[in-house]
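Cross-check.
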Amino acid sequence: MQCALYDAGRCRSCQWLEQPVTQQLAAKMADLRALLAESPVAHWLEPLSGPEQGFRNKAKMVVSGSVERPLLGMLRRDGTAEDLTACPLYPASFQPVFAALKPFIARAGLTPYNVARKRGELKYLLLTESQLDGRMMLRFVLRSEAKLAQLRAALPDLQAQLPQLAVISANIQPVHMAIMEGEQEIPLTPDTALAESFNGVPLWIRPQSFFQTNPTVAARLYATAREWVRGLAVHHMWDLFCGVGGFGLHCATPDMQLTGIEIAPEAIACARQSAQALGLTRVQFQALDSTRYATGQSETPDLVLVNPPRRGIGALLCDYLSHMAPAWIIYSSCNARTMAQDLRHLPGYRVERVQLFDMFPHTAHYEVLALLVRDGQKKAR
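Predicted model, tokenized:
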């Protein structure tokens, strides 16, 4: 991938950009094998990757500069700004939106927030695109509601210029810290969710609900989990840290009992909407803490799928799973280091198979899917 920002030394977010993708994958596999050296793996599957550029469905832009000449991109540690609207990780469909937003910021009087002075209103712009129909969600992260009326008044012209902006909202983040968003979300359009679809499974994207940023690889990740589960005799499944339900909804069948747990209410609303669209009646999604939910149950499902944040599932949930001993655990991880730590706290399980998914090309990061089988359990097909 060619990047003028990288070549000019203005952005180093893609720290592996100069390495061929094959070399990147080899380095990631070597890292993963080293991390899992204490947990023997029966079957290593070939890593899966996707496009090298234009793959991101989401842009998180720090807004800086002046109201007349805003910059959309990032702030370096020294406080200087870099405009990233030309970043090749974004699809071409983002460019006209970025171009229209800069003069719109001036028309709406949305003064960019100045970190040093602690003044201004507009902190971030968050743009997300659905691969299903190209519709987009735009979120304005503001310091307060002071400019909300001006924003509302200016929106009709922006929507006329960019009809693909189907979902627009304002997020209020009053804290002077590098926090992406606050708790308060104010819808500015009748539609509050984007429709998406992976592998024929309807999914929804709402503000404040996590959704994978590399849809091509994410779709293959979900499809792989479904393939693995279909090879097992699963009648009851837990999907912990389920987000919008991507894993559970891919794996569920009409006869399977599925329980999905996620702490974010907006994500659970998405998952319930998808389950209803699929006609699944033995499914329940609840907005709860996954560890607290699991450790409070006395039943043992056949399979527990966990997809935790970077911190992993932790010792408490590991101890519970080891005690309750479901026949299978599928572990999806965005941080193989914490996953390796968790595996060491799951005695009584063997690692049947592992596969790496290159969700973040040109960086050291990657996703992993691992199937754990309880000792004494028959091998998975």
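The radius of gyration is 22 Å. The longest helix spans residues 215-230. Passed to J.P. for a second look.
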